[in-house]
């Protein structure tokens, strides 16, 4: 199909092509199935909509929501599940339901509801990519939407209190991560050697949790202990997203350059310091060695020494 | 419940054996109970039958309000009250009865995933059909839900519940779905279940597990409940191995023991 497919989605950071789970799912699926996707990153100009992201635009269609976009791509013959058996297809649906029910509430909570994380990481990141004055409103609305979803699906009416629900959703999320890790085992992808829809979904939900730097990292710590899931994310990032990383996140590249510069400066300063010390030592060789033991004395001992001298 | 409270409860649960007078509470069978609640209740009954634990079913109009989590069914065992299939399975496990002990880790993960699939798709579709489809709401749901109460309470309660369910549908993204899309989702879910079941008697070959109980509860209720149109049950009837599965469990666990299924 030669029709140009354009995807508008949230941009990337921390080594990821996108920080938004659903956008990442679609991007990963497009890479796995070989669909030629032109990615339009939402930035803080007024161009493009930012409502129901990710959105796929072709010549005559506009498709939103990851499930529908994936269906559309499959109809266009970009199918990553071609080699799966019927039972594996059924398993895919079941595991996606598991992720949405058990893992998604905790991921939403970590990103949007936990106040430390939201105020220091999520809100500034999204606000910088939304034009003023929407940047004042939209992140707050997304946060409320996330909280709403968590309370309505997990809260117990009529109380709808967050504290009771928090412990439960994190426990469910950790169990879900353990189950995914058990299912993945030692294989490279979930169904053999080629990635499929399930791999796209798992990658989309796990990668932001894995890579984004948060102050409150309860779930992230748990994920990092499951080494096969971390290896899974890293593998996909390296094999499918490495080439486009240079193009998509120039900010990341600049950050690396800046860090390198700082490091070089520090090293230079240190070497200068060492040279100066060296010179000093060479220029004054007549320092009496007797002075050195007194330098080792603690103040208390010095005091007692002086006292002893005073007493007759 | 907090984690500490839950650990405490399981310890108490483990201490006593299953009593003879355990009861299961649900809404009134003839006039009040709705499709989704009936499915949940049947799933729990099937699970307890599979574990060989005796249970008496008691119908009360205010069962929803008696339940600790607001959802039916709930069981009253000894001096503890546990609601919903998930916690009931754990409670029964603490007492030493479990159907899924023989499964390995990967199979347990699969079982949990399929249970979530049923909850995510089938249960949500049932709720959508009952509360968001105007025809069903008008003819069946409103009348049934408020039937034990006098006017105007019956209308108020029904509208309140409808508003709550619609909010939830909107939050999870089902608010804009049409009935056809929902039925398509049900079809997809049934197809997945049918492919997983294949030609085996139960989902994990020889022994039934809580997944079998849950699937039976939902499918049997869908097949035997009279709604405004038959589209939902038609979707299930397309899959013959699912029909055989329901028939098998009904025969084995409900008719043989002299109890009526629904």
From TrEMBL, chain A:
Chief location category: mitochondrion
Domain of life: Eukaryota
Keywords, in A-Z order: Membrane, Mitochondrion, Mitochondrion outer membrane, Protein transport, Transport
All copies of domain Metaxin glutathione S-transferase, residue ranges: 173-236
Intracellular or extracellular location(s): Mitochondrion outer membrane
InterPro entries, per the entry: Glutathione-S-Trfase_C_sf, Glutathione_S-Trfase, Metaxin1/3, Metaxin_GST, Mito_Protein_Transport_Metaxin, Sam37/metaxin_N
Region Disordered: start-end pairs: 278-312
Domain Mitochondrial outer membrane transport complex Sam37/metaxin N-terminal: 23-142
Key word Disulfide bond present: no
Pfam families assigned: GST_C_6 (PF17171), Tom37 (PF10568)
GO process terms (BP): mitochondrion organization; protein transport
CC annotations in GO: SAM complex
Record-stated family: Belongs to the metaxin family.
Protein name, entry field: Metaxin
The organism of origin for this protein: Neovison vison
Name of the coding gene: MTX3
TrEMBL record, chain B:
GO terms under biological process: mitochondrion organization; protein transport
Keywords: Acetylation, Membrane, Mitochondrion, Mitochondrion outer membrane, Protein transport, Transport
UniProt-listed Pfam families: GST_C_6, Tom37
One GO term describing the cellular component: SAM complex
Chief site of localization: mitochondrion
Domain Metaxin glutathione S-transferase positions: 187-249
Boundaries of every Mitochondrial outer membrane transport complex Sam37/metaxin N-terminal domain copy: 41-162
Keyword Isomerase set for record: no
Mitochondrion as UniProt keyword: yes
Localization (cell): Mitochondrion outer membrane
Function of the protein: Involved in transport of proteins into the mitochondrion.
Family matches, as PANTHER family: METAXIN RELATED (PTHR12289), METAXIN-2 (PTHR12289:SF38)
Subunit and interaction comment: Interacts with MTX1/metaxin-1. Associates with the mitochondrial contact site and cristae organizing system (MICOS) complex, composed of at least MICOS10/MIC10, CHCHD3/MIC19, CHCHD6/MIC25, APOOL/MIC27, IMMT/MIC60, APOO/MIC23/MIC26 and QIL1/MIC13. This complex was also known under the names MINOS or MitOS complex. The MICOS complex associates with mitochondrial outer membrane proteins SAMM50, MTX1 and MTX2 (together described as components of the mitochondrial outer membrane sorting assembly machinery (SAM) complex) and DNAJC11, mitochondrial inner membrane protein TMEM11 and with HSPA9.
Family, similarity comment: Belongs to the metaxin family.
Protein name, entry field: Metaxin-2
């Amino acid at each position: 199909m030669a029709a140009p497919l354009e995807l508008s989605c949230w941009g990337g950071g921390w080594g990821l092509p996108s920080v938004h789970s659903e956008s990442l799912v679609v991007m990963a699926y497009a890479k796995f199935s070989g669909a030629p996707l032109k990615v339009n990153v939402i930035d803080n100009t007024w161009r493009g909509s930012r409502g129901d992201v990710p959105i796929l635009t072709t010549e005559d269609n506009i498709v939103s929501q990851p499930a529908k976009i994936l269906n559309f791509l499959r109809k266009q013959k970009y199918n990553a599940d071609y080699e799966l058996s019927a039972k594996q297809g059924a398993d895919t649906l079941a595991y996606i339901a598991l992720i949405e029910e058990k893992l998604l509430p905790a991921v939403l909570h970590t990103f949007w509801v936990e106040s430390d994380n939201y105020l220091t990481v999520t809100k500034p990141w999204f606000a910088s990519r939304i034009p003023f004055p929407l940047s004042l409103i939209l992140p707050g609305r997304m946060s409320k939407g996330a909280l709403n979803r968590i309370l309505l699906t997990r809260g117990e009416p009529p109380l709808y209190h967050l504290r009771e629900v928090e412990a439960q959703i994190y426990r469910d999320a950790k169990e879900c991560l353990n189950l995914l890790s058990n299912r993945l085992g030692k294989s490279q992808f979930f169904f053999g050697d080629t990635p499929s829809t399930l791999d796209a979904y798992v990658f989309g939900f796990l990668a932001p949790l894995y890579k984004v730097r948060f102050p409150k990292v309860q779930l992230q710590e748990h994920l990092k202990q499951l080494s096969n899931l971390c290896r899974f994310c890293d593998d996909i990032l390296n094999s499918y997203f490495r080439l486009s990383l240079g193009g998509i996140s120039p900010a990341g590249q600049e950050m690396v350059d800046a860090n390198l510069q700082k490091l070089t400066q520090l090293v230079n300063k240190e070497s200068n310091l060492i040279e100066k010390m060296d010179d000093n030592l060479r220029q004054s060789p007549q320092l009496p060695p007797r002075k050195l033991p007194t330098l080792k004395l603690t103040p208390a001992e010095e005091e007692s020494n002086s006292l002893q001298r005073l007493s007759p | 419940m907090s984690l500490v409270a839950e650990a405490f409860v399981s310890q108490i649960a483990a201490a006593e054996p299953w009593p003879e007078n355990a009861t299961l509470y649900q809404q009134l069978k003839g006039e009040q109970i709705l499709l989704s609640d009936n499915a949940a209740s049947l799933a729990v009954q099937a699970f307890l039958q599979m574990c060989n634990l005796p249970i008496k079913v008691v119908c009360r109009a205010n069962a929803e309000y008696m339940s600790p989590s607001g959802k039916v069914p709930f069981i009253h065992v000894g001096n503890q009250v546990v609601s919903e299939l998930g916690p009931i399975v754990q409670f029964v496990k603490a007492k030493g009865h479990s159907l899924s002990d023989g499964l390995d880790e990967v199979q347990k993960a699969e079982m949990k995933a399929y249970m979530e699939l049923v909850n995510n798709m089938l249960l949500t579709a049932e709720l959508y059909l009952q509360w968001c489809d105007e025809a069903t709401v008008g003819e069946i749901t409103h009348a049934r839900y408020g039937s034990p109460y006098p006017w105007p309470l019956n209308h108020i309660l029904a509208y309140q519940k409808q508003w709550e369910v619609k909010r939830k549908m909107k939050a999870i993204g089902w608010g804009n779905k049409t009935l056809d899309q929902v039925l398509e989702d049900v079809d997809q879910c049934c197809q997945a279940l049918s492919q997983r079941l294949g030609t085996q008697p139960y989902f994990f070959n020889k022994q039934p597990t809580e997944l079998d109980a849950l699937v039976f509860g939902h499918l049997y209720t869908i097949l035997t409940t009279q709604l405004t149109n038959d589209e939902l049950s038609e979707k299930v009837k397309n899959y013959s191995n699912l029909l055989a599965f329901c028939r098998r469990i009904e025969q084995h666990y409900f008719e043989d023991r002299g109890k009526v299924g629904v």
